[in-house]
Design brief:
71 residues, alpha+beta, 3-stranded antiparallel β-sheet, 1 helix, 32% strand
Length: 71
């Protein structure tokens, strides 16, 4: 999983996505960071990302099996 952090006009934006799934990129979560103290991603956001990563892996496996059947 990779996190991209970008600043624009004084605001910070973050996006987390998985890159280990060959042939596919899943955007797991993107948000504007609003807290002015600390750079850590809030725990509830990390939980959302973890849950979505599990969902992305499951979806990817189903998609890959479907692609193998087509070949």
């Amino acid at each position: 999983m990779l996190e991209i952090v970008d600043d624009h006009d004084g605001d910070t934006y973050r996006a987390a996505y998985a890159v280990k799934l060959a042939g596919a990129v899943y955007v797991l979560h993107a948000f504007q960071k609003k807290s002015k103290k600390g750079i850590a991603t809030p725990k509830h956001v990390l939980e959302v990302i973890k849950e979505r990563l599990q969902q992305a892996r499951q979806h990817y496996e189903e998609w890959r099996k479907c692609q193998e059947r087509k070949e």
